[in-house]
Amino acid sequence: MPKTVHKDAGHRPRLRQRFLEGGADALPDYELLELYLFQCIPQKDTKPLAKLLIATFGSFAEVMTAPIAQLTQVKGVGAVTAANIKVLHAAALRLSRENVMSRPVLSSWTALLDYVRGAMQYEKNEQFRVLFLDKKNRLIDDVILGKGTVDRAPVYPREIIKKALDIGSTAIILCHNHPSGDPTPSQSDIDMTNHVISAAKPIGIAVHDHIIVGRNNTVSFKSLGLM
């Protein structure tokens, strides 16, 4: 009997070739996701699933940042596929982090903002993290020191100072996200920043900035003249 040729047999090579020739910009979100899903689901047309994931979460980036529990609620996404999606997200964050680790962050500010946005932009709950820098303003560590609800993450200045002293950090950058999407600083954001500055100054730790990450953009306290 003649072999049955799957209707998708030529589609995958064509899509891969478009990617190789034009890069990611040559593909819409659903096709880029479809291309990645080829590796996770080798024997199935992945276009409907890619479109369903984009429709469910809103964009390629939001699919990558969705929790595993939410990914597996989408029909066609098993535990292995969900884990593979999270691996891709982790790899992207690792690459972004490496781009800022070896350079003074104040002279590679765009790369730093890209990293912070990638880590926090689509978080559903508020997250507070601190970037700890050395004497040359190179990133030593990036630590999440508070996780909370959709509008609040507990932050304790003494924990920030203790961590800085433990690892020999001489400067820090505060970062947190606003899950509402609006990065405008609240009065409590301003007050908390001032508390950290007051605690850090006597022991020679500089607070370079406080970055708030919204859905589509970021806000810098220093740029706003708030510090």
Write the layout of secondary structure elements.
Layout: H1 11-22, H2 29-40, H3 47-57, H4 60-65, H5 68-71, H6 79-101, H7 109-120, E1 127-133, E2 139-147, H8 157-167, E3 171-177, H9 187-200, E4 206-213, E5 218-220, H10 221-224
Parallel strand pairs: 3-4
Antiparallel strand pairs: 1-2, 1-3, 4-5
Helix pairs in contact: 1-2, 2-3, 6-7, 8-9
Please supply descriptive tags for the structure shown above.
alpha+beta, Cytidine Deaminase, domain 2, five-stranded mixed beta sheet, 5 strands
Describe the structure.
With 227 residues, the chain is of the alpha+beta class. The protein has two domains: 11-93, 5' to 3' exonuclease, C-terminal subdomain (DNA polymerase, domain 1); 122-224, Cytidine Deaminase, domain 2 (3-Layer(aba) Sandwich), CATH 3.40.140. 48% of the residues lie in helices and 15% in strands. It has ten helices and five strands; from the N terminus they run H-H-H-H-H-H-H-E-E-H-E-H-E-E-H. It has helices spanning 11-22, 29-40, 47-57, 60-65, 68-71, 79-101, 109-120, 157-167, 187-200, 221-224; strands spanning 127-133, 139-147, 171-177, 206-213, 218-220. A five-stranded mixed beta sheet has the order 2-1-3-4-5, with helices on both faces. Helix 1 crosses helix 2 (29-40) and helix 2 (29-40) crosses helix 3 (47-57). The protein is elongated and about 65 Å long. The chain starts with 10 loop residues before the first helix and ends with a helix. 27% of the residues are buried. Mean pLDDT is 86; it is low at 1-6.
Short note summarizing the structure:
This protein is an alpha+beta fold.
